[in-house]
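A quick word before the example. In earlier lectures we treated sequence and structure as two separate objects. From today on, think of them as two lines of the same record. Here is Asparaginase written that way.
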Amino acid sequence: MNELKIRIITTGGTIDKIYFDATSTYEVGAPQVVPVLTEANVSFEYVVEQACQKDSLELTDADRADIRRRVLAAPERHILITHGTDTMTETAKCLADITDKVIVFTGAMAPARFRSSDAPFNFGCAIAAVQLAAPGVYIAMNGRIFPGTAVRKNREKGRFEAIE
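And the structure line, produced from the sequence above:
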């Protein structure tokens, strides 16, 4: 029986932001997925690969091409990508034609370091989705799993929703 191994590709975004009190600003910090998974005492193998450390509004076409290259080069079939929520759907569309892997994007509306963050819940949903979904590209946010090309961020409601 093959053991589950998930490749986690981090790109930055709010999920990894840290607060600098002296200047009252936020900056993207180190990936927070490892502390969250350690606290959850997960029983699967994973490898974390940092693609970049940017707010998603700063991601370029070259960054998206690099993320795509990393996904295609990964030996794992199960890929989780942490990503800022503002342009997550754009990056998902760049990977939509990859049909031999399960690729799940997730992020957070509040930094993972915040006690009231949605990050741990979103990570959990994404981990479940990457194990159970058919090959394709998905976005796991707000307790839902969406096809990667049929979802949008509703900024007013602070959540993702299906495109009709």
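Notice the following. The beta strands are 5-12, 17-20, 25-28, 45-54, 78-82, 102-106, 136-141, 144-147, 151-154, 159-162. We will return to this example when we discuss secondary structure assignment.
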